[in-house]
Amino acid sequence: MKLVVGMSGASGAPYAKRLVELLRADPRVVSLSLVLSRTAATVYAHECGGHPSGLGVPVYSGRDYDAPFASGSAPADAMVVIPASMSTVARIAHGISDDLLTRAADVVLKERRKLIVVPREMPVSAIHLENMLSLTRAGALVLPASPSFYHRPKAVSDLVDTVLDRVRDHLGLPAPGARRWRQEPSPDSQPADSAQPHTAGHLRPVVDYGEDA
């Protein structure tokens, strides 16, 4: 599978960093590229340290339209925009391809490939909601960065992974060790070079939500 990860300047760079690490280690992914918005590297340095170029995948930014996925003749199989700022959401929703990130997303939509948009914003205005609805109607999947807690997370990385498990599910690349409601994880482990694999041992909590839940 050929994939593109787009990183905007919204807070949530650890989601993008971890996703790239997981996809890079997945043998089902034959091509992986990272495209940055104008402010993505600044936010990444603040939240993760360093620069996204250290993730070991080709990095594109600005208006580098020489990138193969900038054309419908060589589209990616899927693209994930994570985290997606509301500005990025608005431009993609209205077909404004003013940089490589939004152009790549536009190509994925017009070629009827899979576009997953992971907004990390709160609260949201009526304008934000309308833009996300427009994206959904255009064929994108809006998957907010809303982690689950029923697996009793012990670290921030556990929460990050619950969001990325859902992203990978919708890419058609389910994680063997994903935490799923009332299910035991697959006995198959993740790739050996996957960073910080899922923590086992607390996947089926006893939960009493009461009759009025």
What is the structural class? Answer: alpha/beta
The CATH first-level class comes to Alpha Beta
Looking at the structure, the CATH topology is: Rossmann fold
Strand order of the largest sheet: 3-2-1-4-5-6
Average pLDDT reading: 89
Radius of gyration: 17 Å
Quote the beta fraction.
5-15%
Mind sketching the topology for me?
Blueprint: E1 2-7, H1 13-24, E2 31-36, H2 40-47, E3 59-61, E4 78-84, H3 86-93, H4 100-110, E5 114-119, H5 126-138, E6 141-142, H6 156-171
Parallel strand pairs: 1-2, 1-4, 2-3, 4-5, 5-6
Helix pairs in contact: 1-6, 3-5
Commentary on this structure:
- This protein is an alpha/beta fold and 213 residues long.
- The protein has one domain: Rossmann fold (3-Layer(aba) Sandwich).
- Helix content is 32%, strand content 14%.
- It has six helices and six strands.
- It has a six-stranded parallel beta sheet, sandwiched between helices.
- The longest helix has 16 residues.
- The C terminus is likely disordered.
From the structure above, extract its key features.
single chain; 213 residues; alpha/beta; Rossmann fold; six-stranded parallel sheet; 6 helices; disordered C terminus
Brief description of this entry?
Helices cover 32% and strands 14% of the residues. With 213 residues, the protein is α/β, with parallel strands linked by helices. It has a six-stranded parallel beta sheet with strand order 3-2-1-4-5-6, with helices on both faces.
